[in-house]
Write a structure and sequence with these properties.
- With 307 residues, the protein is mainly α.
- The protein has 2 domains: 81 residues, no CATH class; 198 residues, Cytochrome P450 (Cytochrome p450), CATH 1.10.630.
- It has a two-stranded antiparallel ribbon. A two-stranded antiparallel sheet has the order 2-3. It has a two-stranded antiparallel sheet with strand order 5-8.
- α3 crosses α5 and α5 packs across α11.
- The chain is globular, with a radius of gyration of 22 Å.
- Bound molecules: protoporphyrin IX containing FE.
Length: 307
Amino acid sequence: MDAFITAFVLRMFPTWMRSVIAPFLPARYRLKNHRAKAEQVLAAKIAKHQEARRRKERGEPVEEEDTLMDWMLDNGNEQETDLAEMSNRQLAMTLASVHTTSTNTASFLFELCAHPEFFPVLREEIEEVAKEAGKDAKVDIRRWHPQLEKMDSFLVECFRVHPPILLSPQRVALQDYTLRDGTFLPKGCRIAFANGEHQMDPAITPNPEVFDPMRAYRKRHSDPDQYDRNQAVLTDVNNNLTFGYGNQACPGRFLGVAEVKLLVARFITEFDFKYPEGKTVPRTLSADENVFFEPSATLLMRKRKVD
Ligand code: HEM
């Protein structure tokens, strides 16, 4: 949040003024503290990983968690694995992964409560998939979550109607470049796709104002060629720019989608949800291109009575 606040405030000023304003921002001061804290936490973890690596090299048996940070330490160069740099990267990763995944889980639950007829549909699908997966508690989520096709389709529609970022993907021209239509992009120019508008364009999505959770499901089953498309993890210039596009598309999207589906499956299996009296899908607020649900929005939840 402090990274967002710092960026929002600084962006209001011309570039040359930012270094003058920045020291007076409380959020930036807090950011410095977060970075110092991250370095403290990571220093211990990095030392532990290095020790484990040394022991492995000596052929000793080592029990170690297999984390992304360990992978980054083993594969990064000297500058990338420097403590301050690694701390920044881990914090950036936290920022990239947490706000987006939680916003999408929230939008799923908000839309589901606005369309409660889908509770039984999704619960039935979860039960079927769970039955097929068997009783093995350790069954790999990568095996079962793709089978939740209706839930996946619901999520695609949530992405369309509530994209967490309105301008995606975003790029910087590294050299002068002329697009095919003659538009000239000078070196350093920032460009972005208006994905929010694009996904609400009737030429791209018929009846875009209708929240139609089974859109992607119907498309997938309309033709064998379509089956592998129209999925939440797939970036598609016509259907889904939520995760950006091309070789810089979100590398965390497989994890992000699996997490949302895991959370929603668990939530709706164990709990009933509904809006407080008189409430419906909360309005979204945007700061620059970032979208947030109204922070005061709530849902009622209670443990389900299962016979
Ligand atoms: C549902 C959740 C998520 C959404 C909607 C989302 C969205 C995005 C978007 C729009 C981009 C920019 C892509 C582009 O420029 O083409 C991006 C990049 C990125 N995302 Fe995600 N993301 C999600 C989850 C995650 C998770 C769980 C992680 C990590 C565990 C993650 C890590 C990253 C990273 C590292 C980048 C930068 C990639 C690069 O610049 O090469 N994201 N994400």
